Amino acid sequence: MLKGVIVEDERLVANFLKMQLEQSNLVSVVGEFLKPSDALKEIPTIKPDVVFLDIEMPGMNGIELGTKLLNQYPEVEIVFVTAYNQYAVEAFKLNALHYILKPSDEEEVREAIQRVLRKKNLLKLNSDNSLKIELLGHIKVFQNNEEVRLRWTTVKVEELFSLMVLYRKTGIEKWQIIEKLWPNIEMKKAEQNLYTTIYRLKKTFLESGIQLTIENIKGKYTIELSNCTIDIEEQEDWHMEQLFGDRSYEWKQVIKL
């Protein structure tokens, strides 16, 4: 069972969420805080598995608290709770995978818990699990020599993965990704597309049993795949035209590796 903490400045909302969590029989609520500052002080002692954070709070809001927690305790999972869908974009920026919209319903809460459990279980996988990615021809992913059938929810999810794997060692700046994937879209909309696509990409791999991390480090997005080999790094004699099979990405012709 997961150890959970609730940070919510409205007592009734906190009580309702606590009831939903405990009814799931998957989370034991070991701490409740009305003030983010109190939570920040006590969480190191409580050592929860997951923190349910309201975003709209006076003083330090949930995004600020979530940032501090993830920086100090990266093993803690964050689930944002918000009445405003617009804050989902901020959650994507923070590299969070989970958020719940108020008023929360039982199914949505359970789904968020299941995602946390899946991720926690993935982190416990034996480090001997090997991953191989083939980019020459159609993209294929193998785990322990068995092909993993990935379900790309949109064509942009697959395209973003392709691009980020190519830039796996150096990282790639946000504006470069947008320039390649959404060149003719207004910047704010393009940014929302990027955050949503990153979320879907992480979810695709999570549901396939593969731990994938996407981080924004000093303005550059990097993709981290543990114990992974890539065919183009092992082969010397290959040409750009061979990449991605029949996927005709326009940026493929001008990319410099």
UniProtKB/TrEMBL annotation:
This is Response regulator receiver domain-containing protein. GO terms for cellular component: cytosol; protein-DNA complex. GO terms for molecular function: phosphorelay response regulator activity; transcription cis-regulatory region binding. The keyword RNA-binding does not apply. PROSITE patterns: RESPONSE_REGULATORY. The lineage of its organism: Bacteria, Bacillati, Bacillota, Bacilli, Bacillales. One of its GO terms (biological process) is regulation of DNA-templated transcription. It comes from the Bacteria. Keywords: DNA-binding, Phosphoprotein, Transcription, Transcription regulation, Two-component regulatory system. InterPro entries: CheY-like_superfamily, Sig_transdc_resp-reg_C-effctor, Sig_transdc_resp-reg_receiver, WalR-like, WH-like_DNA-bd_sf. Gene3D superfamilies: 3.40.50.2300, Winged helix-like DNA-binding domain superfamily/Winged helix DNA-binding domain (1.10.10.10). The modification 4-aspartylphosphate is found at residue 54. Pfam families: Response_reg. Residues 3-117 form the Response regulatory domain.
